[in-house]
Amino acid sequence: MHPKARIHADPVLEVDQFDYLPDSLVLLILNKVEDVRSLGRCSVVSKRFCGLVSLVHDVYVKIDRVVAVDGDAEDTLNLSSPKPRNIFSHFLKLMVFTIIKPFHNMRNPNGTGRPLFAQLSQHSPAQVLRNFTHIRNLRVELPSGDVGTEEGVLLKWRAEYGSTLQSCVILGGTRVDRRPVGGEHEPSSEDNGSMPESFYTNGGLKLRVVWTISSLIAASTRHYLLRSIIKDHPTLTSLVLTDADGQGTLCMGAEQLKEFRENQLSASACSNRTQVPACNMKLKYAPYLELPGGMALQGATLVSIKPSTEGSNGGHTSRKETDAFVSGAFDGPFKVAVKALMKRRTYLLEMNGF
Q1: Mean pLDDT across the chain, nearest whole number?
Q2: How far from the centroid of its chain's Cα atoms is residue 252's Cα?
Q3: How big is the chain by its Cα radius of gyration, in Å?
Q4: SUPFAM superfamilies under this entry (predicted)?
Q5: Residue 159's closest CA among 24, 239, 250?
Q6: What is the pLDDT of residue 276?
Q7: Does the residue 30 lie in any domain?
Q8: Residues 90-112: pLDDT tens digits?
Q9: Which of 83, 99, 153, 200 is the most exposed place for a label (fewest CB within 10 A)?
Q10: pTM of the full predicted structure?
């Protein structure tokens, strides 16, 4: 009877095959990860990963909650809590969020053994991102929109900023409905392409002014909060700040980030936000729009906003470029709504800076 052969581990198989991948390829993989929490988990895998994580170019930060300036836990806002209805409810509080355990274990690759991030339960986005030294494309997502609206009301905005507002487009509607299957909407007698008289008398115009001012305040507050991130990351070429509700998006490209760094930020005297310059606005309105997917938008409104003093910062924007920005501001059925509204009659408004 032959003795049983002993099975020994092949020392060749014990070699980590991942070690044969060049750093450039590993970094390419990490750039596809993007999520800052997942990158934090990757960083604790090995010293090599820890050193490479700080070199990624593309980073996505999802903010789970916003807490008060004094850190009062009872005043913490999270995704499961009811959405605040006050426009200032999120942004009179500092944008601070929880980064969980993966970052608690991150160590500096310089061999000091000190944590890569301080042992705090709460970190601002600027604190967390400070250890990423080569960020080019940054996307930050807030837990919810900034402007409180009634149920069924549509309000979406998109703004481009340099050191100040460059462009903003707002899409609103008093109600989003589902069209009845096989049903057809009868055009209103007041819908002749012009603004109906009732728009001025039933508070319709006042409501649109409130939407516009609220959206501009939200955009300028987000812009103000980004100043430390932009200062700490000279490699940034694209910065997008959005929210989980898809209500508002602030975006800055390479030229706008450069202009931001070269010009002094004009802050509002009354609150922690960038001053909104005097603006010219183009308002378009349709009482009813049928959208793809069986949707219908009542009281559809499109507002396109440009600074009155355009050209002093960021150069002149042609009408073609402005129309391209407006038509491409939103996706899906809302893109269709914008294109339909762009064919409607234009009403010009002016607004002082605030």
Answers
A1: 80
A2: 10
A3: 25
A4: F-box domain
A5: 250
A6: 94
A7: no
A8: 443 444 444 434 444 444 545 55
A9: 200
A10: 0.78
Which string of DSSP letters, residue by residue, matches 136-151? -EEEEEESS-SS---T
Higher-confidence position of 249 and 101: 249
Residue tagged 């906003």 (tokens) = 305
Q: How far apart are CA 34 and CA 139, in angstroms?
A: 9
- DSSP assignment of 229-278 equals HHHH-TT--EEEEEETT--EEEEE-HHHHHHHHHS---B-SSSSSBPPPP
Cα angle vertex 159, ends 62, 218, to 5°?
A: 65
Tell me, yes or no, whether 34 lies in a domain.
no
- Crossing angle for the helix pair 319-327 and 333-341, to the nearest 10 degrees: 140
Give domain status of residue 265, yes or no.
yes
* Residue 196 one-letter amino acid: P
Q: Residue 190 — pLDDT band, cuts 50, 70, 90?
A: low
Q: What is the rounded distance in angstroms from the CA atom of residue 60 to the CA atom of residue 299?
A: 35
What is the DSSP-derived secondary structure letter of residue 292? G
Tokens read off for 300: 């559809």
Strands, E assignment, 126-190: 137-142, 154-161, 165-173, 175-178
Question: Rounded CA gap, 87 and 213, in Å?
Answer: 10
Give the domain extent around 152: 144-179+195-308+327-351
Q: What is the C-alpha separation between 215 and 146, in angstroms, rounded?
A: 8
Rounded to the nearest angstrom, the gap between the alpha carbon of residue 344 and the centroid of all alpha carbons in its chain is 29
Establish if 16 belongs to a structural domain.
no
Whether the CB-CB separation of 57 and 24 falls below 8 Å is answered with no
> Distance between CA atoms of 115 and 327, rounded to whole angstroms?
47
* Tens-place pLDDT, residues 68-93: 444 443 333 333 334 444 444 444 34
Is residue 284 a contact partner of residue 347, using CB atoms and an 8 Å limit?
A: yes
Task: Lowest mean pLDDT of 18-22, 64-68, 252-256, 319-323, name the range.
Answer: 64-68
Q: Where are the beta strands (DSSP E) in the chain?
A: 58-62, 65-66, 77-78, 137-142, 154-161, 165-173, 175-178, 238-243, 248-252, 279-291, 295-307, 347-351
The tokens for 61 are 């930060």
For 63-153, strand residue ranges (E) read 65-66, 77-78, 137-142
For the chain, what's the residue count? 354
Total structural domains within the chain: 1
pLDDT at 187 over 70: no
